[in-house]
């Protein structure tokens, strides 16, 4: 009985976590539908989908530190889902840019991609995210074995590309970039800390032996 | 107990909207604008219709009077389709009130724009601090429909209300040493939250400048209104510059100082990133901003089904009028 109850709660939790990241997209779609996105709805959609691609990538990166620092284990179940959502929003972000801003004018698209450094690093980040999404299934994980871990370490350079992507867009106010940067600093810094700690432990053990 | 006080003004004494509007037409006919109208270069300013819930800014009484007497300068106006009032007053770059496009409309509503003083100084015969009313009153206000091209590659078409900057400057007798004009926006962090931001790389107050021949050009305008009414605070009330052949950031808002000088003045964006924003900042599709192309622009409002992308024209389509000012200059160098 109690087991069935906890199983039901588990399903509920899964559905809540699954539906929550769709809320920004729902909000955007609704407001676009009622023409409530202002004079430049294209810009608004591109901006918001980009912001959520980053938010979800940061959330994905937060799950391991949450476990190590705060002993919080349950979010691990959702790491893959959050990563896939980040890829999803990044893809919508690029498609919205190409469709609503450039109107699929290939000449403009090529020009923007080749000449604007912040677009190049953004596009590169998305490109690198794709193999991580493709290999996120359990089957792929098994097939790739130890290489899977190596491949998925790509998420660290991707997060740095994303930082460059938003820093190069600063016009005058860097408040938001500072917040994203500090959080990423903590997320990557904690990994560095645990890595060094493990290394010294191994070395000490080696010396003792 | 509830005691109902009689209204101090009887409803029968209130002028109805239609009578009020008719009076506007009547006054326009009476004033000396008929001569201008007869030349064919000017027309009556139309009565704009707005969606009901949109705020309209009327300005002080003297401003309303001046606006009632105004005419449209058709010779200087474009035939391009107007950007609706709603977008003009709700999609703004005015970093003193926040960096988001909707921030100024949100944060500027209590901005005090009356009374307003402007200091005119430097190389002029009659320097001083003047009430805005005294600066504007001697001039006939004109409506002019200009294209506005933002450096961010979007554009609008706006019916401004104002006067030629040159006409105003002449009243203060510029000396022969006046080679440039420097403008300064109000610095008031209490009223302008953007000036309190700790993460801004811009220095306040905002400053801008023009060469004297640019300032004296008939297209260069000091605007006090938009869409047949006073200027909304988020658009730079009560007094802003409009230079239609330059990127929008040159058109400085909420001006409190105008200084004529013999040296090229500093300009805010140029101080922050000189390789990105030049002193001249003439609209030029051939010179890209380092982070985006300037070859085309999106004419707002754009919709999702149609980005409304149009090619950007040299000098924002005003080349016939202003290209002369820059003859012999390398516009790639003097961007």
UniProtKB/TrEMBL annotation, chain A:
GO biological process: protein repair
Protein location: Cell membrane; Membrane
Keyword Cell inner membrane appears in the UniProt entry: no
MF (Gene Ontology): electron transfer activity; FMN binding; heme binding; metal ion binding; oxidoreductase activity, acting on diphenols and related substances as donors
Requisite cofactors: heme b; FMN
Domain Ferric oxidoreductase: 49-162
Segments forming a coiled coil: none
Keywords, ordered alphabetically: Cell membrane, Electron transport, Flavoprotein, FMN, Heme, Iron, Membrane, Metal-binding, Transmembrane, Transmembrane helix, Transport
Stated family: Belongs to the MsrQ family.
PANTHER family: PROTEIN-METHIONINE-SULFOXIDE REDUCTASE HEME-BINDING SUBUNIT MSRQ
Function: Part of the MsrPQ system that repairs oxidized periplasmic proteins containing methionine sulfoxide residues (Met-O), using respiratory chain electrons. Thus protects these proteins from oxidative-stress damage caused by reactive species of oxygen and chlorine generated by the host defense mechanisms. MsrPQ is essential for the maintenance of envelope integrity under bleach stress, rescuing a wide series of structurally unrelated periplasmic proteins from methionine oxidation.
Protein name: Protein-methionine-sulfoxide reductase heme-binding subunit MsrQ
Species name: Pontibacterium sinense
Lineage: Bacteria, Pseudomonadati, Pseudomonadota, Gammaproteobacteria, Oceanospirillales
From TrEMBL, chain B:
Domain of life: Bacteria
Enzyme class name: oxidoreductase
Record's comment on post-translational modification: Predicted to be exported by the Tat system. The position of the signal peptide cleavage has not been experimentally proven.
SUPFAM superfamilies, alphabetized: Oxidoreductase molybdopterin-binding domain (SSF56524)
Binding site for Mo-molybdopterin: 92, 95-96, 150, 185, 235, 240, 251-253
PROSITE patterns the record matches: TAT (PS51318)
Keyword terms: Metal-binding, Molybdenum, Oxidoreductase, Signal
GO biological process terms held by the UniProt record: protein repair
GO MF annotations in UniProt: metal ion binding; molybdopterin cofactor binding; oxidoreductase activity, acting on a sulfur group of donors, quinone or similar compound as acceptor
Subunit structure: Heterodimer of a catalytic subunit (MsrP) and a heme-binding subunit (MsrQ).
Role according to the record: Part of the MsrPQ system that repairs oxidized periplasmic proteins containing methionine sulfoxide residues (Met-O), using respiratory chain electrons. Thus protects these proteins from oxidative-stress damage caused by reactive species of oxygen and chlorine generated by the host defense mechanisms. MsrPQ is essential for the maintenance of envelope integrity under bleach stress, rescuing a wide series of structurally unrelated periplasmic proteins from methionine oxidation.
Similarity field: Belongs to the MsrP family.
Name of the protein in its database record: Protein-methionine-sulfoxide reductase catalytic subunit MsrP
């Amino acid at each position: 009985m109690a087991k069935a109850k906890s199983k039901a709660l588990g399903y509920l939790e899964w559905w809540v976590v699954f539906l929550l990241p769709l809320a920004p997209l729902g909000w955007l779609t609704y407001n676009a539908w009622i023409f409530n996105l202002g004079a430049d709805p294209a810009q608004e959609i591109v901006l918001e989908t980009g912001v959520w691609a980053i938010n979800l990538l940061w959330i994905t990166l937060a799950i391991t530190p949450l476990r190590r620092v705060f002993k919080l284990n349950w979010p691990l179940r959702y790491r893959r889902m959050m990563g896939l959502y980040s890829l999803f929003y990044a893809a919508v972000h690029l498609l919205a840019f190409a469709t609503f801003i450039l109107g699929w004018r290939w000449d403009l698209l090529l020009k923007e991609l080749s000449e604007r450094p912040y677009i190049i690093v953004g596009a590169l980040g998305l490109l690198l995210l794709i193999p991580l999404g493709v290999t996120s299934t359990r089957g792929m994980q098994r097939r790739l074995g130890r290489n899977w871990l190596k491949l998925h370490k790509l998420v660290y350079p991707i997060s740095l590309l994303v930082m460059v992507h938003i820093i190069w867009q600063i016009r005058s106010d860097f408040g938001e970039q500072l917040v994203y940067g500090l959080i990423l600093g903590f997320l990557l810094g904690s990994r560095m800390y645990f890595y060094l700690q493990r290394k010294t432990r191994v070395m000490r053990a080696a010396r003792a032996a | 107990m509830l005691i109902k006080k009689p209204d101090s003004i009887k409803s029968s004494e209130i002028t109805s909207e239609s009578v009020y509007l008719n009076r506007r037409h009547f006054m326009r006919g009476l004033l000396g604008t008929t001569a201008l109208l007869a030349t064919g270069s000017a027309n009556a300013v139309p009565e704009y219709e707005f969606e009901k819930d949109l705020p309209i800014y009327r300005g002080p009484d003297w401003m309303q009077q001046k606006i009632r007497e105004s005419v449209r300068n058709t010779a200087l106006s474009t035939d391009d389709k107007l950007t609706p009032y709603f977008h003009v007053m709700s999609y703004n770059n005015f970093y003193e009130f926040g960096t988001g496009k909707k921030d100024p409309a949100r944060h500027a509503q209590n901005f005090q724009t009356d009374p307003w003083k402007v200091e005119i100084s430097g190389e002029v015969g009659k320097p001083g601090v003047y009430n805005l009313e005294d600066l504007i009153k001697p001039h006939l206000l004109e409506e002019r429909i200009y294209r506005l091209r933002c450096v961010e590659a979007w554009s609008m078409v706006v019916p401004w209300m104002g006067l030629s900057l040159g006409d105003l400057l002449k009243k203060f007798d510029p000396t022969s040493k006046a080679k440039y004009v420097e403008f300064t926006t109000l610095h008031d962090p209490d009223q302008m939250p953007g000036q309190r931001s700790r993460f801004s790389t811009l220095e306040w107050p905002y400053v801008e400048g023009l060469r004297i021949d640019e300032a004296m050009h008939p297209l260069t305008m000091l605007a006090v209104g938009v869409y047949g009414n006073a200027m909304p605070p988020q658009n730079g009330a009560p007094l802003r510059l409009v230079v239609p052949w330059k990127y929008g950031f040159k058109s400085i808002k909420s001006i409190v100082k105008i200084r004529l000088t013999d040296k090229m003045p500093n300009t805010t964006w140029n101080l922050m990133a000189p390789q990105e924003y030049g002193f001249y900042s003439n609209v030029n599709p051939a010179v890209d901003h380092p982070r985006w192309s300037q070859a085309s622009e999106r004419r707002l409002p754009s919709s999702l089904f149609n980005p409304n992308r149009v090619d950007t024209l040299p000098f924002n389509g005003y080349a016939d009028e202003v290209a002369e000012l820059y003859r012999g200059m390398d516009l790639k160098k003097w961007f």
